């Protein structure tokens, strides 16, 4: 009896190890390829480097736990961003009280002394309503097409196009108004 | 594609590759300009969104995953332990009973002394194992312990900290492979540093420096205990050791 069990164990455990090795490599390459984009996306939705890092770590850990459910590597990016957005939603469920957006007030107060376009546009992006901000970030950071964003956010493609259009227009007009107001400072 | 839809698409998705969009974009100079302009604006937005990513982000992610892996292994290994424990329990109960039944003192003797023969492990590998197993338990801990709290616990080992050695995130006794040791987590220069104070009489094999894929550590004999320090690979452990050695006074 011993003979049979030991033989069976040996062969099955070696495939388990091979499998684990493959799984590990797959996971490491996902982390290497996507963690920077995930971080940037997280940073822009929560605007806090530490929270962003936590979010990405939680996302990756969750991804590791369910990596077997990812069948096609082509959908890895969409899959990871979905996990990240879900993790972020969880964070809000946990911290309902912290929902007051202090940053918005700071932005209003700082508006007059910003002379740098990049800094200004960063504030404007941060202050966009999330309906507009999310599609914009998914397009510009993650590089998703309008169709992919539509699947990701469960919207139809035309809605995504409209939101992208409005987000960009909003940023553009904001920027123009600001530059006109601070025209002297820029010159 | 009509004018309004084209304007919308040009601004929303200037990199649209569909034939309808591309042919419409090539139809006039003003259309071309609009697409170029909004591509430039996209680029400007993209550049503005490029925030710096923490350098050690991927390392941290993989470290956390390796701990999760360790954690899973421990959990899945528990049923073996449970069965082993049950068998040991049955043997422990039945052997002395049989001994009594057969009136053989020798059997009672061997059964009760056998577990006392202990295999002495290498202090470094026990420390690494321990840190990994407790990683999730202590990862978010921050007790902000005072010098007083630390000293109350250090006293057991005949030691006393004269001045603070930085932020103490966690301090408690722990079972260091069966030996009661002090387990502290301090804030190091790069990350969290775990410090164990292990009594000398535990008889672990000494190991002055040790490491594995994700962690490294050093240990030294001080007073009548061993000081074991474990941290991430880029943590200057010697600095921490000097700090601790300078601060802690030993009775002997």
Give a written overview of the molecule.
The complex is a heterodimer of chains A (187) and B (252). Chain A is mostly helical. Chain A is 80% helix and 0% strand. Chain A has helices at residues 2-46, 49-65, 76-94, 102-110, 117-127, 130-140, 146-153, 157-181, 183-186. The longest helix of chain A is centred in the N-terminal third of the chain and has 45 residues, at 2-46. Chain A is elongated, with a radius of gyration of 22 Å. Chain B is of the alpha+beta class. Helices cover 51% and strands 19% of the residues of chain B. Chain B has helices at 3-12, 19-25, 29-49, 57-102, 105-113, 123-138, 147-154, 237-247; strands at residues 159-161, 168-176, 179-187, 192-199, 209-211, 216-222, 225-231, 248-250. Chain B has a 6-stranded antiparallel sheet, sandwiched between helices. Chain B has a two-stranded antiparallel sheet with strand order 1-8. In chain B, a hairpin with a 2-residue loop joins strand 6 (216-222) and strand 7. In chain B, helix 4 (57-102) packs antiparallel against helix 5 (105-113). The relative contact order of chain B is 0.09. The model of chain B is unreliable at 107-118 (pLDDT under 50).
Topology:
The complex is a heterodimer of chains A (187) and B (252).
Chain A: H1 2-46, H2 49-65, H3 76-94, H4 102-110, H5 117-127, H6 130-140, H7 146-153, H8 157-181, H9 183-186
Helix pairs in contact in A: 1-2, 1-3, 2-3, 5-8, 6-8, 7-8
Chain B: H1 3-12, H2 19-25, H3 29-49, H4 57-102, H5 105-113, H6 123-138, H7 147-154, E1 159-161, E2 168-176, E3 179-187, E4 192-199, E5 209-211, E6 216-222, E7 225-231, H8 237-247, E8 248-250
Antiparallel strand pairs in B: 1-8, 2-3, 3-4, 4-7, 5-6, 6-7
Strand content of chain B: 15-25%
Roughly how many Å apart are the termini of chain B? 88 Å
Helix content of chain B: 40-55%
H/I helix tally of chain A: 9
Q: How many β strands of chain B by DSSP?
A: 8
Main beta sheet of chain B: strand number and arrangement?
6 strands, antiparallel
Low-confidence stretches of chain B: 107-118
**Strand/helix succession of chain A:** HHHHHHHHH
Structural shape of chain A: elongated
- Mean pLDDT figure of chain B: 83
Structure classification of chain B: alpha+beta
């Amino acid at each position: 009896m011993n003979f049979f069990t030991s033989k069976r164990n040996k062969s099955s455990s070696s495939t388990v190890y091979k499998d684990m090795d493959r799984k590990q490599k797959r996971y490491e390459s996902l982390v290497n390829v996507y963690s920077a984009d995930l971080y940037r996306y997280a940073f822009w939705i929560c605007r806090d480097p530490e929270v962003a890092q936590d979010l990405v770590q939680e996302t990756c850990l969750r991804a590791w736990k369910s990596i077997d459910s990812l069948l096609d590597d082509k959908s890895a990016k969409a899959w990871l961003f979905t996990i990240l957005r879900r993790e972020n939603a969880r964070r809000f469920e946990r911290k309902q009280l912290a929902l007051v957006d202090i940053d918005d007030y700071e932005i209003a107060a700082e508006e007059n002394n910003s002379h740098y376009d990049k800094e200004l546009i960063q504030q404007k992006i941060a202050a966009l309503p999330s309906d507009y901000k999310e599609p914009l970030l998914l397009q510009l950071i993650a590089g998703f097409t309008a169709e992919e964003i539509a699947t990701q956010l469960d919207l139809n493609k035309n809605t995504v196009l409209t939101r992208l259009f409005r987000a960009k227009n909003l940023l553009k007009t904001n920027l123009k108004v600001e530059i006109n107001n601070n025209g002297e400072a820029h010159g | 594609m009509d004018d309004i839809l084209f304007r919308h698409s040009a601004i929303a998705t200037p990199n649209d590759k569909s034939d309808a969009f591309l042919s419409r974009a090539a139809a006039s100079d003003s259309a071309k300009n609009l697409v170029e302009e909004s591509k430039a604006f996209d680029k400007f937005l993209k550049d503005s969104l490029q925030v710096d990513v923490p350098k050690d982000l991927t390392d941290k992610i993989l470290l956390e995953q390796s701990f999760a892996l360790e954690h899973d292994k421990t959990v899945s290994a528990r049923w073996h332990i449970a069965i082993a424990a049950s068998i040991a329990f049955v043997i422990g109960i039945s052997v002395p009973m049989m001994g009594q039944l057969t009136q053989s003192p020798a059997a009672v003797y061997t059964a009760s002394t056998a577990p006392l023969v202990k295999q002495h492990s290498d202090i470094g590998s026990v420390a690494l194992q321990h840190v990994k197993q407790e990683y999730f338990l202590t990862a978010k801990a921050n007790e902000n312990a005072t010098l007083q709290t630390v000293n109350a616990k250090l006293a057991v080992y005949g030691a006393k900290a004269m001045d603070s050695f930085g932020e103490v995130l966690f301090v408690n006794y722990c079972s260091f492979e069966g030996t009661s040791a002090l387990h502290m987590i301090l804030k190091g220069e790069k990350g969290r540093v775990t410090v164990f104070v292990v009594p000398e009489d535990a008889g672990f094999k000494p190991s002055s420096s040790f490491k594995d894929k994700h962690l490294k550590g050093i240990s030294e004999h001080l007073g009548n205990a061993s000081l074991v320090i474990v941290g991430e690979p880029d943590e200057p452990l010697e600095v921490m050791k000097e700090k601790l050695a300078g601060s802690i006074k030993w009775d002997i």
